[in-house]
């Protein structure tokens, strides 16, 4: 493999993985571990298998068709790509407000400045990446560097927490309880919404596409899930270690209390670094991917996509800094976001069997079946969470 290709593949994998590892990812993992203890290992194991199935399907079809997801959707059914793009942009904007908020909280822990000021400074840093001519390469390097930092620091905290690794390993295959909601939540948090498309669209932009690139694309898609999963596993073990020692987590900020209980004040500062890194890389990933869903609709949008990305980050930062997090909107759009994966994956599976889209490529039957099962499960849970979210708007 050429060094250039390897760099692009690793960059795409880390862009997707760090897009998944956001503030919600950290909180979600901590809370579910507190509820299920060692049996949460089973949830992680099952979700990894589902994540790989969904992501391999999507990345392979994007690569072989040599088109972005919205253009594939329009080829399947005219107008569907615009619907998909609208859902992704709305969901990406809502989550980016939360990501900006997370970056602000991270800087608050590290430096004691207000979350609003920290959010503005973090937003300015993210904007700076897209002002550079070689923004794609800088984005790749930025997400790789912070991805390694997050994992390394979490490993340190995990070792200080002294988790019962043996029990976790056993319960990962023989759990005391099986929580299906937790499985679907983890799948949605890893490959839901815009996240799974981050790396796939990055490969298209970098020119790594076509049938010849499929082996490399497949490896990259699995590698991306592996990076996100490693982070989740080490955080799970850190939380389990703290809980096994008899400590209780602070319900107002569960992840922070894990790091602090495991490694004292140093651990609390480490949490600040990890939380900020998780948030800022998700800001970059959400902005890049959301804009990638509309840039192909017009030459004007294509030629000005960097400025659209900068505008996307600016709006997200402005909303949090001057309006605050609009909780009701986040609930509603976040619920809608849960419908993006089944819709997009369903479209991809249909496209995979249309020769006008994929040419002579033959998509493996087992991937189609696996993908279809994910579509059914995520559709059910997406509708359920949407119905649950709407009443909260009127409370």
TrEMBL record:
Gene Ontology terms for molecular function: cadmium ion transmembrane transporter activity; manganese ion transmembrane transporter activity
Subcellular location: Membrane
Key words, A-Z: Membrane, Transmembrane, Transmembrane helix
Topological type in the membrane: Multi-pass membrane protein
Biological processes per GO annotation: iron ion transmembrane transport
Main location: membrane
A family per Pfam: Nramp
Gene Ontology CC annotations of this record: plasma membrane
Transmembrane segments: 36-59, 80-101, 113-132, 144-161, 181-200, 221-243, 270-294, 306-323, 329-352, 364-387
PANTHER family per the UniProt record, alphabetical: SOLUTE CARRIER PROTEIN FAMILY 11 MEMBER (PTHR11706), TRANSPORTER PROTEIN (PTHR11706:SF2)
Record-given protein name: Membrane protein YcsG
Organism field: Halobacillus andaensis
Gene assigned in the entry: ycsG
